[in-house]
């Protein structure tokens, strides 16, 4: 919960450890889901921000823009309340995803004139225009040369990751309107339009996303927040839904809910998933090392000497310590950023790798050699009695097991002596 992620299915924690691909919904997850105007072109000239105040276009053109759009009016110092009272809407053409535009037909109450306004994708709207207003408020014909310049402006906005929207208008004669009461078809005029301006809007990226994506490298799963994302969330190996803007259907179909709708939380989920998988490997390596060593020591000693160096009670005590304190320490290690620099583990990869088998055998042989040396030659080498030697054999085995987890913190390291010096120092200091 501290990382703003609520796990609904426990198996998802393990699955995140070997996830290698992320399919994410852009809006609201990577971005703030807040569209903001960052660029405006009036004719072929940009409207620039000069000392915190926007340069305004011609007043007549500005009035036309105010009539046709209510987008980002606060920052452009536009008030729409008075405008709404001064005009009456005759007909509205809702946004069409195929045509990529929407229109409105309105009548000015002051002079009873009728204007048709269109706004939408700049490429589509530009084809409907025959004239445009320049920066001085003068109407000019939209010839091929001007058309190429506008297309260049649109391409420049697209290159800057901006969505370019065009605003146009045309005066409509009374006889072209039809019946306002709905008795005849009323349409918003679609040809001979005059271009008012171009706007570039941007859904700003969350500030945490850049570092999060760099840390993920090839990671994660599927994210979504809408009802239409539910099938993908359900079919994915790990489905991550958004807790704030996500629908209930999306949350029910997901395995993990990102409470803060922040992409950086997805990185934390991946990191903890890899940590869980890594801790399981550490626990298995530790268990196998100790059990193989104990079994081999008792078997060889029974064959050569005819007695067991470790009694059943002693082995039970060792396993009690090993299964609780040692294993608990390995299984609860916290996730580190180093896990994000390692490649994700695939589903088909073995849980016990070749490096782990090498470490298990090497560390087990080390314990076997030390214990059997004391068991077979301890009395003569150290000059002690048999009872003291048996005690020494058991305590030596316990102490070897005690500092064994320290080198195991790096299970895929190719040196079994990594951190061994630190382990010995800690062990001696405890004595």
Automatic annotation (TrEMBL):
Any single Pfam family the record assigns to this protein: Cation_ATPase
Predominant place of localization: membrane
Residue ranges occupied by any Cation-transporting P-type ATPase C-terminal domain in the UniProt entry: 308-400
The organism's place on the tree of life at top rank: Eukaryota
Molecular function per GO: ATP binding; ATP hydrolysis activity; metal ion binding; P-type calcium transporter activity
Listed name of the protein: Cation-transporting P-type ATPase C-terminal domain-containing protein
Annotated Gene Ontology cellular component terms: plasma membrane
Alphabetical UniProt keywords: Magnesium, Membrane, Metal-binding, Transmembrane, Transmembrane helix
Classification via NCBIfam families: ATPase_P-type
Localization: Membrane
Organism of this sequence: Psophocarpus tetragonolobus (Winged bean)
Regions that span the bilayer: 288-306, 312-332
């Amino acid at each position: 919960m501290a990382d703003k992620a609520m796990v609904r299915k426990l198996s998802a924690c393990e699955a995140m450890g070997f996830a290698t691909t992320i399919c994410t919904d852009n809006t609201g997850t990577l971005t703030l889901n807040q569209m903001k105007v960052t660029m405006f072109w009036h004719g072929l000239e940009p409207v620039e921000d000069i000392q915190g105040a926007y340069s305004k276009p011609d007043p007549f053109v500005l009035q036309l823009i105010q009539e046709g759009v209510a987008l980002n009016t606060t920052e452009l110092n536009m008030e729409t309340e008075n405008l709404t009272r001064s005009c009456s809407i005759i007909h509205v053409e809702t946004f069409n995803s195929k045509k990529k535009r929407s229109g409105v037909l309105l009548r000015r109450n002051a002079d009873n004139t009728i204007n048709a306004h269109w706004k939408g994708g700049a490429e589509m709207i530009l084809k409907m225009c025959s004239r445009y207003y320049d920066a001085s408020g003068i109407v000019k014909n939209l010839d091929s040369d001007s058309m190429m310049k506008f297309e260049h402006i649109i391409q420049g906005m697209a290159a800057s990751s901006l969505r370019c929207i065009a605003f146009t208008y045309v005066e409509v004669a009374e006889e072209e309107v039809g019946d306002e009461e709905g008795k005849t078809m009323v349409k918003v005029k679609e040809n001979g339009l005059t271009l008012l301006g171009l706007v570039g809007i941007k859904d700003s990226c969350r500030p945490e996303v850049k570092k999060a994506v760099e840390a993920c490298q090839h990671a994660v799963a599927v994210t979504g927040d809408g009802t239409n994302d539910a099938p993908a969330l359900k079919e994915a190996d790990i489905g991550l839904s958004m807790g704030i803007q996500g629908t209930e259907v999306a949350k029910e179909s997901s395995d993990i809910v990102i409470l803060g709708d922040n992409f950086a939380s997805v990185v934390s989920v991946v990191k903890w998933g890899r940590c869980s998988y890594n801790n399981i490997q550490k626990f298995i390596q530790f268990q196998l090392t100790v059990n193989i060593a104990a079994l081999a020591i008792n078997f060889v000693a029974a064959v050569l000497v005819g007695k067991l160096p470790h009694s059943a009670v002693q082995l039970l005590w060792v396993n009690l310590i090993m299964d609780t304190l040692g294993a608990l320490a390995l299984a609860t290690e916290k996730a580190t950023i180093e896990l994000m620099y390692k490649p994700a583990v695939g589903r088909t990869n073995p849980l016990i790798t070749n490096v782990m088998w090498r470490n298990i055998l090497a560390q087990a042989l080390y314990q076997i050699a030390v214990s059997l040396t004391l068991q077979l030659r301890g009395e003569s080498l150290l000059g002690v009695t048999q009872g003291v030697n048996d005690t020494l054999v058991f305590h030596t085995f316990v102490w070897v097991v005690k500092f064994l987890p320290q080198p195991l913190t790096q299970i895929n390291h190719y040196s079994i002596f990594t951190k061994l010096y630190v382990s010995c120092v800690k062990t001696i200091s405890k004595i």
